[in-house]
Each structure stands twice: as structure tokens, then as C-alpha cells.
Amino acid sequence: MEVNGLMPLPDSYDYDLIVIGGGSGGLAAAKEAAKYEKKVMVLDFVTPTPQGNSWGLGGTCVNVGCIPKKLMHQAALLGQALQDSRKFGWQFTEEVKHNWMTMTESVQNYIGSLNWGYRVALRDKKVTYENAYGEFVGPHTIKATNKKGVEKLYTAEKFIIATGERPRYLGIPGDKEYCISSDDLFSLPYCPGRTLVVGASYVALECAGFLAGLGLDVTVMVRSILLRGFDQDMANRIGEYMKEHGVNFIREFVPIKVERVEEGTPGILKVTAKSTTGNQIIEVEYDTVLLAIGRDPCTRKIGLDKVGVNINEKTGKIPVNDEEQTNVPYIYAVGDILQDKLELTPVAIQAGRLLVRRLYAGATTKCDYLNVPTTVFTPLEYGACGYSEETAVEKFGEENIEVYHSHFWPLEWTVPSRDNNKCYAKIICNIQDNERVIGFHVLGPNAGEVTQGFAAAIKCGLTKEQLDSTVGIHPIFWDFFKFFLLNCVHL
Amino acid sequence: MIFSKTFCPYCNKVKELFRSLRVDYYALELDVTENGDSIQQVLAELTNQRTVPNVFVNGTHIGGCDATYQAYKDGALQKLLGDNQITEPYEYDLIIIGGGSGGLACSKEAASLGKKVMVLDYVVPTPLGTSWGLGGTCVNVGCIPKKLMHQAALLGQALQDSRKYGWQYEEQVKHNWETMVEAVQNYIGSLNWGYRVSLREKSVTYLNSYGEFVEPHKIKATNRKGQVTYHTAETFVLATGERPRYPGIPGDKEFCITSDDLFSLPYCPGKTLVVGASYVALECAGFLAGLGLDVTVMVRSILLRGFDQEMAEKVGAYMETHGVKFIRKFVPVQVEQLEQGMPGRLKVTAKSTEGSETLEEEYNTVLLAIGRDACTRNIGLQTIGVKINEKNGKVPVNDVEQTNVPYVYAIGDILEGKLELTPVAIQAGRLLAQRLYGGSSKKCDYINVPTTVFTPLEYGSCGYPEEKAIDEYGQQNLEVYHTLFWPLEWTVADRDNNTCYAKVICNKQDNNRVVGLHVLGPNAGEVTQGFAAAIKCGLTKELLDETIGIHPTCAEVFTTMDITKSSGQDITQKGC
């Protein structure tokens, strides 16, 4: 079998499977393969950030993604809980402060235990783990370079690329020198102070949200729209809520220069920004600038060209078929680096696991990338499953969809008497198909917990009629939600 | 004149119609009449109709059931009856007795369909004199205040957790009962007012009076001052709900409180004994302990009867590790007052259910939560012949919520063999009004109704408890998937690992369809609701596995359950 490259194929391979990248998808695939008695190796290596930050095994989600952000979001929610609790009769001193270091230490300790847990799990499953950077050097052959620069060559019959993504930098003066990204924030050894968040991705809004919730002065600089790709009606409501809760927004501006005014932890930075619609220039000082303008796949420096794996030259993403196979048959890919797929931990895990079952256990089930639920942990959480309203209109035509929607007021918010008419839910139905639910959107507390079951229901073909005949649980806000859903129709 | 057969449902329907119009009729039951067959033959020749019922009014042939109802709808029937009937039109189309969740939902729906509707609502004060406004149990002394007080307790936990998350404030934290009760009661007050306003907006007549049937289609309404008015209606809906039961021991009504008193108690209850192990008992015990009180629960036999017992025991175990004491297999036999006060001091004497052992203990407050009784015995049902179950006072209805008296319907907690849940009553009330006045035929579905118990560790469920599933399908036909889980938010707070638990019961004979779903953990209600919709849509284990999780949530555990109970594999979480 002559595949690619000029090097001769080895006679036998060191491993059945080498997984490049020890994140959620890679680890799930490796552990699953070990179940079927395959000889598996995982290569994981974290290239330090420009600020010198790096972390342990487990990938983005565990170290610099879902886990720490949800925990810091929880810290912010607890700040709200402290305020609410007085209305519920709890009495304590007026003065409440937040200590960034205590929080970060708790969060990092927990992450440390997860890193350790992954190492142990790999050892238990007899998966070889190398803390080394993997790079293809020829067909079926990879070079692993560890921290000390020691290089080793390994061969395998099959490979899974699961290298994930890293934050994008702006390419403006001062960005790498003075700015931080989400890769730095969660282990920042000092409170960031007055913070400018650049970008309006979910990472940007989530970070801005919890920083403000911890009492910091936070500004978000947005080039154009909030939460591109998400339902825009919902995205704007999220922005409104954040604004009302003290987050400043600078719309239609982009930074062009970051300078250091004063060193320190944090220091003082001067940000120069330019209007996207005119020539207006502004200059503002912040203690910290957090860049969250997007993420790039780590696919350009792993020797893919040596083995002939195609990537999208523009985005760096890897196109795969519906079985996660690249154009090189023995090389597969899972996770955030896939072209046109979702960048979500559970998707990577599901894809990795199912891929391995197909490879080694004769399974045929493919990963279903449709109707994947997701939640944005902004101060007002946003859960969604299925189509956004815009996409639904585009796909089915405005006349063929019916949207049911309502505001609701969570019972727990009534006593503290806050934020009435902020929580909102909407359901998009396809009239042509028995009013099947094709989009589900909710803004409110515990939106993730709420959305999960409905995602299962949508998987089962939920229709509006079935939804109506489902009895609500009282007195969670669903009941209010359902009550209004029955009454309100918006065309 | 109705030519009828005793077993014919259409004949009965016609008779109901005449009864509801208060028209005396003569029915000849052809199947029990000697020459029934030949009468039917003659009828066929005379009217070209062989079937029954065959209805004549004052000599005019009307026809069968459909024809009679049609004649009723277009008024022809009333015209024919007119001559020998003293036509006194009813004052209302519909009178509803009871202004709780079900009654209000039904009244508003009927009014929006153009009917003239009256709601009677009256709260008989508790033995200690507590009463409340419009809206029924749920709003005043049920779901709403209990969830709010549960929230107060959760916030107490949040205060503790918050330190681990970096929040700093003085060590000493106290809870002020009066502040909480006032806040809760203010919110309830706004709801009471809201209901009044919405009834007015829908032109529903509201009377704050006690309703009691005095003759068919006629009710006596007595207000607080004892003033009496009488009202008639074509149709009635009973929605009187239930009230807490007293054990009938010395001192119970004099010195004990119930959930009817607790949520507006003007003083902190102090050291409290909760009697009973119903969900009301455990929820109240849970939040009282969460507010820092010394709480003991006295249990006659099992916890949460009717719920999955494995889950019930876990609910109890969690409460016990969080400071609630349990006295099992004892019942109180006497309550004495040692000292008056707010709260005072009470001495409770209890007796073992297994032997002759007795014990005595002092408490500040004794809360009775041993069950609830339907309010159906003092509303004149016997006068108009509505049957109730003599033992428990519940009202048997058919699948369209109709009692044995055709013009009287019933909804809510007083129904026999149905679920006592607010959303069920609301759904039933609305659908009933839509069937009565909106030409709908949709019935309330009492199957796969989700519910949540707001104990300190919340418990959400939908479908069968494991025991009932085994009864129904047989153990060999079931597969139970289960797992423990550790909510991310609890990890940093470093508490309660391996206590949250999820379980899914599948029917192997039916494509591994999910027949029961149970979860113990934070936000269990939010987690359960969507899965209830999924179960309604025929959720199977395969579909559940194909559903992608939302990370990081508690609800995602349901998408990755691969350990079966029968395998006996370890489900404890180790570190991560």
C-alpha cells in the first residue's frame, strides 16, 4: 500500500493507534480503543502562551475552557446569591469582597486533580502517554519531541488528529506582549482589575460576564455582532442583560495598538482603537486586555503536508467525511479542528468514541452532528438546540415556521424582586411537518440543565402538540413558560 | 319519551341531557321490556329509525342521540319542551367551587370562550386561625412558599460555598425568619391580587364565600359575615382541593401546626418535630434544617410512599448527613404544652409501632404532615347525589372529569386515583373548559407526569418507580442504568461527592424504551422537565445515548449512562 510521501512503509507498527492531542476527544478515543485491546499511544503537548502559561493533560475544556469558566461563572452567581440571600432573611456584614486568588487556587486545585485523574485513567487502561509534541515525518510515522527537546519516532497503523484550537491574536502592536487570552485568564496569579475584553464570541461574553459578576469594571469591544452563528434575537437579549448588569460595550470598534503605561500585576495598558465605520480613534486605559476574537486550529505545524492530509488553507480546519476520515485513509480527525462541525467537548467525545467503535468493534453508528444542544454561560445563561430563527427562516421559509415565545420570571427571582421580563424562551416549529420543534432557545437560570432534556425530546421528534401535552413541573419556571407558550403566538 | 336500552351509552347521554335541563322524562328500556323487540319493530316502521335511543318530545319525533343534541344546540328542543316547563334560565353557565390552580384555570378558560362564570372561594381558617387569599393551596400554602423557603435554605448553602469561591465577609451569618416570611408573604399577596385582577379582566364573577349544594343546579354561598346568597348554573366544577389531616390525638389541634400555618408563622419555629414522611414533611424538615434549626422527623413506616424507594432512602440519607434527625417507627400519641410563647415549649409522647416502647421529648414546634384530606364532605354533595369514596372523601370521575351526576365535574387534588399536582389540575381544568365550551375533545393525560420533590437534595422523576416497573413488566424485562455524579459546582466547594444519583429504567421488550427516569441532584426539576417531554415522544435508551450532552451540566449524565444495575459494577466517582 503506497499512500503518500517518499519514506518506505514500516513492516510492522509500534502501535495500532496514535492519538495526537490529549483533549476530550483524543482521550475518549484512546480509552475506548484500549477497551478493545488495541495498543494505543496519546501524545499531548501544550505550547506555552506568549505569557508563558501552560497546563496539564486534558485539553482545552478541562484546563482553559468549560471547566474553569463554569466554575468562575458559578463564583459570579454566588455573588448574586449573596445579594439575594439578604432578601431571604440571611444576615451578615454589609461589606463583601471577592478574593481572586482564593478562587483561582480552588479552581486550579480542582483542575490539577482532573489532570491527575486522566493520567491515572490512561495508565489503568494501558494507554501509553507521552508529554511530547507530535509531528508527522512520513507515512504512518510520527516524531515526538518532549519538553527537553528529546526526539523519538513512532509508527502506527492508524492516527487520530485531535489537536484542538488555540486563541487567535490580533496581529497588532502589543498584542502578544501585553494582552492575555482565555489560555491565561483562569490561572492568572493576580486579579485582572479594569478589563477590556476584545471580541463578542461566547468566550468573550462569558469571561466578561463573570469578571463583572466578581465586581470588576469590564468593557467589551465588539467589531460587529454578538455571538455570530447564534440566534441573533437571543444574542442581543444577552447583551442587553449584561449591559444592565454593569458591563460596558463599545460597539463597532477594533483595537489597533496596545501599549504598556505601567508594569505590575496587573499593570496599566493603553489601548488605541479605531471605528469600523469611520475614522474615529479612541484611547482608553485598562489594567488587563483579554483577547477573545476567535480560535485557530493547531494543524499547521504537525507535518500534515508530509503525509498529504488536506486542510482548508484559509481556516486551517480539516475536512473529513461522515466517518471522521481525512483524505488520507489511515488518518482520522475529531474535535474542534474539523471543518463545518461543532466545537463542543461532548461532540468531540461522542465522535471519538464512535469512531473507535467503528474502527475496532465493528460498529456502524456515526456521530450525529445535528440537533446538538449547547449552552452559553453568560450571566443570563442561554441554552439552545436546533435551528436559530434566522437559519430556520432561511431553510424553511418564513411562512412555513411558527414561533412560540414568552418571557418568564423565575420564582427564585421574585422575592429579591429582580430582573422581571428578562428571561425568555422561544420555540420554532415547522408548520409543514406537524409543527415539529426545529429550534429551542431559552434564556434563564440553569439554561443548560433545562435544555438537555429537550434536546433528547427533539431527538425523539418532539412536536408542539406533544410539548403542550407534557405536564409542567411546578413551580420551576417551566410551568410559567409553558403557560405562556400556550397563549402567545408571534408571527 | 325515550325508547332506550339499559346498556346503551348514547341512551344515557340523552338522559343526561334531559336531567341537566331539569326535564322529567319517561324512558322505556326495550331490552328489559317483555315485548321490546316488537316495540322496536313498530318504532322502525313509524319513524324509519331502528336504533335507540329514539326520542319523542310531546309527541314530536326528534330522533337519536345526535339528533337530540342537535335540536338542543339549535334551540328546537327547548322550544318543544317550552310549553310544559317553567323556564327559569340559569344565572350562570358555570359555577366553580374552589379558587385554586385548577378552578381558576378552568374559570378563565371558560370565560374566554364566552361563558358566564362564577368562582366561589373560601378558606376555612386552620385550628390556629390562619387563613389566606385567592389562589388555593399551591400559591398560598404549597408549592410557591415551600420552593421559596427551599431557596432560602439553598442560599444558606451558597453562603458557605461562596467562601471557597473567593467571597469574603465576616464569619457570623444568621438567619432571620421574620424577614423571610415577610418577603414570601409579600410575593404571595401580589399573586392573590393578580388572580383577582385577572378574574375581573376575564369577567369572571368572584365570591369569597363558602359554596354548598342545596338542590340540583343550585348552590348556597355563605360569606365570612354569614350572609347567604343562592346561585344557579347549568354546569358545576368541584375544585375544592385538600387540607392537612390531623392524627386525632390529645393536643393535636390545640398545639400543633401544619403546612397551612408554617409559611406565614410570625415567629421562628425553633426546635421542630415534623410528623410524617410525605413529601410535604420532608420538604419542610429539609428547609427548616437548612435555615439552621434543630429538626427531627418522626416516621411511622417508609419515606415518600408511592415514590421510588431507592431514591426515597437516598433523599433521607442526605438529609441525615445534613443534620436532620430521624425517629423511625414511632407515632405521636399525645402533645402537651409546657410553656406558652412564640414559640412555646411542647412535650411530645410517642409510641413505637412495633412494641410498647414510648418516648418523650420536648420541642418548640410540632409540624403535622401526615397526609391531606379532600374537602368534599361539607359541600352538599349528598344533596344532589354526587358520589364520593366514603373512606377517603375523594371524588371518582370518568376520563372527562365528570362525576356520576352529569352536570357536575371535578378536577384537582380531590379526584380519586389521580395525581395531586398543580400543573395537572391546571391542565385538566383548561382542557375541561375547552371540551365543554370550545368543541374540543382533548382529554387530560395523567400518564408520565413529571414531578419534583424539593428536599435539600432535590428529586425529580417521570414515569415508573423501579418497584412499579418491576410489577408491571417483570424484573427480567427491565434494564436499569444508573450512575452517581458530582455536580461541577460542588467540586470546588468540596462537598457531597457520590451523593447525586441518576437512574433510567428501560423496557427491554419494547426497544429499551424509557419507562422511568429518576434524578437526585441540584435543579432536579429543571433537569427532569425536558426528559418528560422526551418520554412523551417515546424516548429509548438508544436515542438517549445519541443525544449529545451539554457540558458541564448535571443533566448530561443521562446521555452517557452505560453501567447497568444488574452488572453490579461500581458507580462511585473517583476524583474526576
From TrEMBL, chain A:
Domain (FAD/NAD(P)-binding) spans: 15-352
Q: Recorded E.C. number(s)?
A: 1.11.1.2, 1.8.1.9
Residues annotated as binding NAD(+): 199-206, 294
Identify a single GO molecular function assigned to this protein.
NADPH peroxidase activity
Among SUPFAM superfamilies, the record links this protein to: FAD/NAD(P)-binding domain (SSF51905), FAD/NAD-linked reductases, dimerisation (C-terminal) domain (SSF55424)
Gene Ontology cellular component terms for the protein in this record: cytosol; mitochondrion
Q: Which residues form the active site?
A: 474
* Binding locations of FAD: 70, 134, 336
- List cofactor names only: FAD
Keywords of this entry: Disulfide bond, FAD, Flavoprotein, NAD, NADP, Nucleotide-binding, Oxidoreductase, Redox-active center, Selenocysteine
Which Cys pairs does UniProt list as disulfide-bonded?
61-66
**Gene Ontology terms describing biological process:** cell redox homeostasis; cellular response to oxidative stress; glutathione metabolic process
The protein's annotated catalytic reaction(s) are: H2O2 + NADPH + H(+) = NADP(+) + 2 H2O; [thioredoxin]-dithiol + NADP(+) = [thioredoxin]-disulfide + NADPH + H(+)
Domain Pyridine nucleotide-disulphide oxidoreductase dimerisation stretches: 372-477
Quote the InterPro entries the UniProt record gives.
Answer: FAD/NAD-bd_sf, FAD/NAD-binding_dom, FAD/NAD-linked_Rdtase_dimer_sf, GSHR/TRXR-like, Pyr_nuc-diS_OxRdtase, Pyr_nucl-diS_OxRdtase_dimer, Pyr_OxRdtase_I_AS, Thioredoxin/glutathione_Rdtase
The top EC class is oxidoreductase
The cofactor binding remark recorded in the entry reads: Binds 1 FAD per subunit.
Q: Which family does it belong to?
A: Belongs to the class-I pyridine nucleotide-disulfide oxidoreductase family.
NCBIfam families linked: TGR
Q: What exactly does this protein do? A: Reduces disulfideprotein thioredoxin (Trx) to its dithiol-containing form. Homodimeric flavoprotein involved in the regulation of cellular redox reactions, growth and differentiation. Contains a selenocysteine residue at the C-terminal active site that is essential for catalysis. Also has reductase activity on hydrogen peroxide (H2O2).
Instruction: Kindly provide the name given to this protein in its UniProt entry.
Output: Thioredoxin reductase 1, cytoplasmic
Organism the protein comes from: Serinus canaria
The gene name reads TXNRD1
From TrEMBL, chain B:
One of the protein's GO biological processes:
glutathione metabolic process
Could you say which enzyme class this protein belongs to? oxidoreductase
Name the residues that bind FAD: 147, 211, 413
Q: What is its EC number?
A: 1.8.1.9
The cofactors it requires, by name, are: FAD
| The Glutaredoxin domain, residue ranges | 1-62
Q: Give every FAD/NAD(P)-binding domain span.
A: 92-429
**Which residues pair up as cystines?**
138-143
CDD domains xref list = GRX_GRXh_1_2_like (cd03419)
Q: Which residues form the Pyridine nucleotide-disulphide oxidoreductase dimerisation domain?
A: 449-561
Residues that, per the record, bind NAD(+): 276-283, 371
Entry GO terms, CC: cytosol; mitochondrion; nucleoplasm
Q: Which PANTHER family match?
A: GLUTATHIONE REDUCTASE (PTHR42737), THIOREDOXIN-DISULFIDE REDUCTASE (PTHR42737:SF6)
* Similarity comment text for this entry: Belongs to the class-I pyridine nucleotide-disulfide oxidoreductase family.
What name does UniProt use for this protein? thioredoxin-disulfide reductase (NADPH)
Q: Which organism is it from?
A: Serinus canaria
